[in-house]
Fold each of these.
Amino acid sequence: AAKRMGGNTYIFYDPSMNLADEEMMALQSELRVAVERGELMLHYQPKIDARTGKIRGVEALVRWNSPTRGMVSPGKFIPVAERFGIIIDVGNWVINEACRQTREWMTQGMRLKVAINLSVFQLRMDNLVDYIDAAMKRYEIEPSLLIFEVTESAAMEDPKATRGKLKAIKRLGVSLSIDDFGTGYSSLSYLRQLPFQQLKVDRSFVIELDRDQRDEVSSFEENQKQNNDALAIVDAIVRLSHALNYRVVAEGVETERQKEILMGLNVDEFQGFLFSKPLSPAMLALWAMGEDGNILDDFPPTQAFV
Ligand code: C2E
Ligand code: MG
Ligand code: MG
Ligand code: MG
């Protein structure tokens, strides 16, 4: 039986299809038209310089504002977009929109470095480099204002092909960042062969740093061990990263204590709810203005703007 999915899309149901499959088919068919209908938007999360306490840039994070589903998180729709080949359209939209916004902030007098996430599927496209180049020219963006984030696992998938692609992107003059570092199976010695300038320590390590202060399920001793292990791991990651000339960003910083520990470990930048959630462009501009003039021990309160 064929079922009408909206638009001109018909999906043929296999009797073995379960509810989760049906839900996924519905999601992908709605997502296909979401791009054209302008239902996607970007939010921006501040990246804070550990030394000065000031905003250094932002990460663009896509959201889907669906008229029927409400706000859908990228954790839910990016995997679907990747599986059904919609990620190229979504990814191109993100690149263009992030460049447009970067230009708009420039005209408002704000020079913000903007980080853009790339899917492994985008990296496989022959015309990705041309697309980025065209978007930068369209909005007259200096390449030094853009950073492209690639997850560690994406970078390690077909490393040979990826290396060529990353080098071509790098030649545009933009920076490259290793996202979610520590969750994959790569070694820094291998990643060294790829042209990265920044490394983002995955949130899972940051969470472990102050577990003793929050987790009441495990014993104090167990938590202490986790803390010490995480500390040793992040310490090693930071030292190696610096030896390789990467700037190190800690993701998912939520507590003052995590921030203090990460400062002690010489992390260069912080990103996390302690500073701010991802914000709409208007809220981000307000936040950045309020933050102006802030100094090291006086991080801005974020709640008011979230
Ligand atoms: P990511 O690139 O690692 O982005 C960081 C994620 O962590 C974001 O989730 C952000 O909201 C969240 N986060 C930041 N600080 C904290 C914190 O202190 N605590 C907690 N619990 N979470 C924090 P988000 O926006 O839901 O995005 C999830 C993932 O979806 C991203 O992980 C990225 O892999 C993917 N994604 C988002 N936007 C895009 C995009 O434009 N293109 C592609 N290909 N992937 C994207
Ligand atoms: Mg990212
Ligand atoms: Mg990340
Ligand atoms: Mg992540």
Note: The chain has a mean pLDDT of 88.
Amino acid sequence: MILGLLKADITEIQVDAIVNAANTSLLGGGGVDGAIHRKGGKAILEECIQIRNKQGGCKTGEAVITTAGNLPSKYVIHTVGPVWNGDKDEKSKLLANCYQNSLNLAVENGIKTIAFPNISTGIYHFPKDKAAQIAVKAVKDFQRIAEIEKILFVCFDDENYQIYKEILGIENK
Ligand code: AR6
């Protein structure tokens, strides 16, 4: 498995699946969720509504999969990060679950390449440094990692990008 880092807009990434930092309603919102629904078109929302009707949305830490509509990827995996409010242990576990459950869904669907945004570090206010440590550890600890070819961390803001660079040991050039 190759672990990569990019500073980019995740809606432009060509991989089998991009991950969305959604909310429990699965009906869209701001941040990366808004960008994915805007660019991906209504096919994504339609599938989200079907999932909602079947299972009543998505719980924090869990993940669901839909088409990627007009996006360059094949699928969108929607996961719901925790809202940061200082309850450190519980929230950290839930954030790790987002990465692990997204990877589980990826393996179940034959997905070989996947891109993650920095879940919970925007509107949900999870401390960026802590979130990055959790994300990298969760991915490295994933049991079925050999079944995935490439995992990309896609940072949108420079602060997250610098944090990931340091954690992953990438030199500044
Ligand atoms: N590509 C990649 N990363 C992005 C993009 C993009 N196009 N846009 C923003 N980010 P956020 P959350 C980064 O707020 O904190 C929504 O309303 C951003 O810089 O999108 O998990 C949902 O519906 C940040 O680092 O998600 C939920 O209600 C990261 O994505 C709520 O926000 C996550 O920021 C979820 O909040």
Note: The chain is about 40% helix and 20% strand.
